[in-house]
From TrEMBL, chain A:
Residue ranges occupied by any ABC transmembrane type-1 domain in the UniProt entry: 78-279
Protein name: Sulfate transport system permease protein CysW
CDD domains: TM_PBP2
Localization annotation: Cell inner membrane
Organism: Methylobacterium haplocladii
Origin superkingdom: Bacteria
Keywords on record: Cell inner membrane, Cell membrane, Membrane, Sulfate transport, Transmembrane, Transmembrane helix, Transport
Primary location group: membrane
Gene that encodes the chain: cysW
GO cellular component, one term: plasma membrane
UniProtKB/TrEMBL annotation, chain B:
A GO-annotated cellular component: periplasmic space
One MF annotation (Gene Ontology) recorded for this entry: molecular carrier activity
Protein species of origin: Methylobacterium haplocladii
Family annotation (InterPro entries): Thiosulph/SO4-bd, TonB_box_CS
Pfam families: SBP_bac_11 (PF13531)
Signal peptide: 1-23
Protein name: Sulfate transporter subunit
NCBIfam families associated with the record: 3a0106s03 (TIGR00971), PRK10752.1 (NF008022), PRK10852.1 (NF008106)
UniProtKB/TrEMBL annotation, chain C:
Taxonomic superkingdom: Bacteria
Protein name: Sulfate transport system permease protein CysT
Organism: Methylobacterium haplocladii
Segments traversing the membrane: 21-47, 67-94, 106-125, 145-164, 196-214, 220-243, 250-274
Coiled-coil segments: none
CDD domains named among the record's database cross-references: TM_PBP2
Family named by the database record: Belongs to the binding-protein-dependent transport system permease family. CysTW subfamily.
Amino acid sequence: MSEAIAPADFPAAEASLRPPASVVTETGWVRWTLIAVAVAFLALFLVLPLVTVFAQAFAKGIGAYLAAFSEPDAHAAIKLTLITAAIAVPFNLVFGVTAAWAIAKFQFWGRDLLVTLIDLPFSVSPVVSGLIYVLVFGSQGLLGPWLIEHDIQIIFAVPGIVLATIFVTFPFVARQLIPLMQEQGTVEEEAALTLGATGWHAFRTVTLPNIRWGLLYAVLLCNARAMGEFGAVSVVSGHIRGLTNTLPLHVEILYNEYNFVASFAVASLLAGLALVTLVIKSVLEWRYADDIAAGARRH
Amino acid sequence: MRFSNSLGHTVVAAAFGASLALAATVPARAQSELLNVSYDPTRELYKDINAAFAEDWKAKTGETITVRAAHGGSGAQARTVIDGIPADVVTLGIPSDIDAIARISKKISPDWRTKLPNEGLPYTSTVVFLVRKGNPKGVKDWGDLVKPDVKVITPNPKTSAGGRWNFLAAWGYAYEQNNKDVEKANAFVGQLYKQVPVLDTGARGSTVTFAQRGLGDVLPTWENEAYLVFDEFGRDKFDIVIPPTSIYAEPPVALVDANVDKKGTRKQAEAYLQFLYTDQAQAIFAKHHYRPLKREAAKKEDLALLPEIKLFKIEDLQGSWDDIQKKNFDNGGLFDQLGKAGR
Amino acid sequence: MATPSPRPKRRFRQPSVIPGFGLTLGYTLTVLSLVVLLPLAALVVRASGLGISGIWDVATDPRVASALRVSFGVSLLAALTASFFGSIVAWVLTRYDFPGRRIIDAVVDLPFALPTAVAGIALASLYAPNGLVGEQLAKVGIEAAYTPVGIFIAMVFIGLPFAVRTVQPLISEIDKEVEEASAILGSTRLGTLTKVVLPPLIPAVLTGFALAFARGVGEYGSIIFIAGNLPYVSEIAPLLIVIKLSEFDYAGACAIATIMLAISFTVLLAINLIQAWSRRRFGYV
């Protein structure tokens, strides 16, 4: 795939190279209409909900806002969310790098099928993602009797929540790295090996620096999703207060307790996380577009 | 930029950390922790009860105990117990949900009703109407719910115990009203559900829809839930209408035998359930607008809000709980048929 | 894609000096199997207990059929809308320069980063009859929240990033010289757009559409707050799975889940076919 650089990344160069505008662009009013449509659409569907979260969170002042975070249940939810992400994200990072290495650096039979299977969790409904773990680890499930016998609690406890989170974020790192590593090919690693490096050494000193920004980018998105997952976690959580409620579940609980300010306050924490994610993501895209993805700026 | 090298270490450290964290999260279950799996509207109630019990238990035994609670639609909560949530006690919205746990998972003994006073009912409740201030649609009794311009907000009886009590209360009213004519009672309930614009999964969802989102004219709901709306949203926006007759709603409690025996918490869990029948707990029930078993234990001003009205027991009209569940709410039951006929 | 080199005969993998194939592939397959394939297999096993006829019975039950119809029908409309406006957004963001372009570009990914439950309560409070937008819509007689319109809004929200991001890179890859040539040869701008610019974008638009559709069909968190959840009207298939579970009807839940899983597979397959076709037709993905 050819490298593509959006013209807007180089506004000055673009201005001098640009052919007569009317030939390759639309007339002024069409252009501004399209811009207006796009901006209005995004404002209505994306920006307004975001603004609502913060507006509702601060509806009764900063004191009520802060009170939402003084509850022990809120602390427990924050802690659980952090623990879950702290396990799920590194797990998927290791998996993603390993899978990308196997898939991008080698040609083997069934490679495309493997990529499709890794992609699968992406299109599975979150509810189904939770359900399958209930079917395996629930008391009525396949491993249920064995787990009861050995006194191991998977669902309705942290391991189940982590598993469901790993499932829904499973493809993120691998998907990002596979095309990137494919594009980079194997020449540099081969050179390192020829010069006597071990495989691990070649990976650390050659491959990793090449994919670092892409990796960071993928981890960022993976983390946002891991901390925000609702449907799958909701099915396996059991909603025990102070024990198995993650932040998104805590938002729902507060909402159902008529505690709307607190609910939106906690939601604003997650929305803030989303905003930080978007900012870092955009910075990465602007500065390291070519190091992030094969071709420019592709998910 | 030294990022590459440190990233290499980070990967290794992260993977190592992940396995450590996984090992650390195997739940260490202290003996002095109980889990009460309850239904949707009891959140505020059990906050008070659990604190009172912990204090009481500490005074009696010196042991510090934490009672954790999980809330959700009654059916969904029963499902988590069946699927293995380590509940010590269940306090659900309707007897058939505890029957289901006993039948499917065998974790509760089938004769759970006989283990505690009053068939496992430390308190009861009923269904009343919450209407907009001034009662603009003039809703006085169940019959008014099917007036052409009245929109009713009620939860899905498939998932919510409150939804099932509403359904059974409406049916029971029409059955008595029409000289015990089953067909007419069915038709009445059918008409009622045609006037429901939003069918939430739990009682709480319905209350939010009615009170916060401003949909519908009347919210038939748990008595305690109606008063909670008063307290949370202000009395200037709503009125409570108590119908002349309503249903005797039975939210029972039971011990989850299999779990307490495995966890070794039987003593504490039994004490917890017994505590629900003490005067102290009974007063808390009344304070939260549940109808206590011992009225004499409650404060007068709390009782004043729980007037004696004519309450009928659905078992007297429809038979055993197995029958009630099957006839009305199981797959292909009356509720399913209503939807098919209506649309 | 790496250049496809001629495949050797009957060899599992081509020789390479790069080490670690066995280790990495072994680890990949093990983890994939444990985390994804085995649990999914458990679902299929559970559902196969019903047999094809059993699944068919569940699928044709009026309430289930109606939930599937709502999920697929509304998702189809939402994906179409997201694709239409998403393409415009992609075009505007790549081709035009205007103040705030980069911020708007970043905003497109918001639904990706914002937890669905947060989106759900925000959308519900906006589009409720007493909400900021809902109030205006009510004046013109549109009930948004608690109707299929609410589901539609949530699904558009969820699907939009996919619709934009799959199309965007291709627009930036369009060779402007081809457009110039078209213009010099006497085509109007509209003619150039419809005959030269748009056709190569079709595969990407279709891929984005398919992704948005798949996400919409499965979406749960953001929809349940705004949908109204009324059987036969605004009840979605994932919610019905949750309801079936609450009724202890594991078989029914598995049957619906299996149907949805089959659809997911089909959509993924369709995307792969679109991309294969696009590779043949246009020489790129």
